[in-house]
């Protein structure tokens, strides 16, 4: 390639609009990246994966470029965004769509109010890329062969209702703007949301949660209008004593590149507070060394590692889930390697809507049946919440028990009973 062509390409590659425009959304577009797949086995594997997946395909050239295509099946970045049929496992018998019961905790369309003083605002149903493990696979992204999405209706028509609810519910001090992903919002929309929320005196903290920095970091350095909108909100917030923060979503140290460094430096210089939330996934970051590297790299970028979530129960990602035991082990390995405030809390977002719990804080955990039972005193004090380890982490005997509905019910009942007995002893 001539030098000029190469320079042009580099210039284009660093442009978020170009990345968006060239995002891959169809299997056949992957062919040119695959190289040695002469007999088409890999492509067919991806097709089979997508046919079962609840999430549509969308991946930026930037991310495609980070995949090690010679090790396609094992690559930690590939695993997050491109499904293959050969790795899929049957879902856990306890899986239900929308396992966190978000729609049941929605007082108005597009707002999840589960905890007392904080809410989740679903600003859009689009993302710069689609992750296989998305909790909101019931609504985010385009319809797939297996899921017709519950549409998040156009934001403008819901916005006034959301603002009105927040205004008359002053107990809410904390708003998480999520979705979907605010990277897909126009700068004017982003600004309107930020300033709208800032006009409500009871709101003390606003976070913008985005996968963007991890999958499209050049947005920050090339879409000046968007970055200015974010900085304007942050500055306006600071002026009136409201904390604005930016929550990123990095899962593997290889997702941190020169583009990421440039973007994070820019945001840090412009006074944006940043924190990171990761998802613990088998074959991606279920290794203490990988997690340690990630934590160190993020800390150096002044992105505070905040949470590591165990995978939610989502269809098509059973092979990526990790046991509670493994999550606890990795947490123990990570704690102490750096500043405590840069050490993430490992959490389980409990199925059934109990909210996030420290993974170590189960009331009862049976490693044979793989059931961990949690209490959520501040959310639903009278209820117990159960998180199941993935079947592949259990003995063959326990696995067989789980596929028998009668024995499965028995195991569930036994775990809840054991937790209650323990709690009665304490009280
Ligand atoms: C995660 C979450 C929040 C924010 O919780 P933090 O623990 O403060 O990060 C708020 N609402 C819902 C429904 C959530 O799932
Ligand atoms: S960016 Fe977030 S909301 Fe969007 S698909 Fe990924 S996990 Fe889901």
From TrEMBL:
Q: Which residues form the signal peptide?
A: none
A GO molecular function assigned to this protein is: metal ion binding
Q: Which residues carry this modification: N6-(pyridoxal phosphate)lysine?
A: 356
Q: Which cofactor does it need?
A: [4Fe-4S] cluster; pyridoxal 5'-phosphate
Q: Which domain of life is it from?
A: Bacteria
Could you list this entry's UniProt keywords, alphabetically sorted.
4Fe-4S, Iron, Iron-sulfur, Metal-binding, Pyridoxal phosphate, S-adenosyl-L-methionine
**What family classification does the UniProt entry report for this protein?**
Belongs to the radical SAM superfamily. KamA family.
PANTHER family reported in the protein's UniProt record: L-LYSINE 2,3-AMINOMUTASE AQ_1632-RELATED, LYSINE 2,3-AMINOMUTASE-RELATED
Protein's recorded name: L-lysine 2,3-aminomutase
């Amino acid at each position: 390639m001539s030098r000029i062509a190469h320079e042009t390409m580099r210039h284009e590659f660093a442009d978020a609009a170009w990345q968006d425009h060239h995002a891959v959304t169809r299997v056949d577009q992957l062919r040119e990246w695959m190289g040695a797949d002469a007999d088409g086995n890999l492509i067919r594997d991806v097709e089979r994966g997508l046919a079962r997946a609840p999430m549509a395909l969308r991946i930026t050239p930037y991310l495609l470029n980070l995949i090690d295509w010679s090790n396609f099946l094992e690559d930690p970045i590939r695993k997050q965004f491109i499904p293959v049929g050969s790795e899929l496992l049957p879902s856990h018998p306890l899986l239900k769509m929308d396992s966190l019961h978000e729609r049941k905790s929605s007082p108005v369309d597009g707002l999840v109010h589960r905890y007392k003083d904080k809410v989740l605002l679903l600003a859009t149903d689009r993302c710069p890329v689609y992750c296989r493990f998305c909790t909101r696979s019931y609504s985010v992204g385009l319809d797939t062969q297996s899921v017709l999405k519950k549409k998040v209706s156009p934001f403008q028509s819901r916005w006034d209702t959301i603002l009105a609810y927040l205004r008359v519910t002053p107990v809410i001090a904390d708003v998480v703007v999520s979705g979907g992903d605010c990277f897909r919002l126009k700068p004017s929309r982003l600004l309107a949301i930020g300033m709208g929320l800032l006009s409500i005196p009871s709101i003390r903290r606003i976070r913008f949660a985005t996968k963007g920095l991890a999958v499209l970091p050049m947005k920050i350095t090339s879409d000046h209008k968007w970055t200015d909108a974010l900085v304007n909100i942050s500055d306006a917030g600071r002026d009136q004593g409201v904390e604005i923060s930016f929550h990123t979503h990095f899962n593997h140290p290889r997702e941190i590149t020169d583009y990421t460094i440039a973007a994070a430096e820019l945001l840090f210089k412009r006074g944006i507070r940043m924190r990171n939330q990761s998802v613990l996934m088998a074959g991606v970051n279920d290794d203490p060394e990988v997690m340690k590297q990630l934590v160190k790299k993020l800390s150096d970028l002044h992105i505070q590692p905040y949470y590591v979530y165990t995978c939610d129960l989502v269809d098509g990602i059973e092979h990526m889930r990790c046991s509670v035991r493994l999550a606890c082990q990795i947490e123990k390995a990570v704690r102490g390697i750096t500043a405590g405030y840069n050490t993430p809390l490992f959490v389980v977002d409990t199925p059934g809507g109990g909210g996030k719990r420290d993974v170590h804080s189960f009331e009862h955990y049976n490693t044979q049946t793989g059931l961990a039972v949690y209490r959520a005193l501040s959310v639903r004090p009278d209820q117990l919440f159960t998180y199941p380890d993935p079947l592949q982490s259990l003995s063959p005997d326990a696995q067989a028990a789980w596929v028998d509905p009668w024995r499965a019910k028995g195991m569930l009942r036994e775990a809840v009973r054991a937790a209650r007995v323990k709690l009665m002893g304490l009280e």
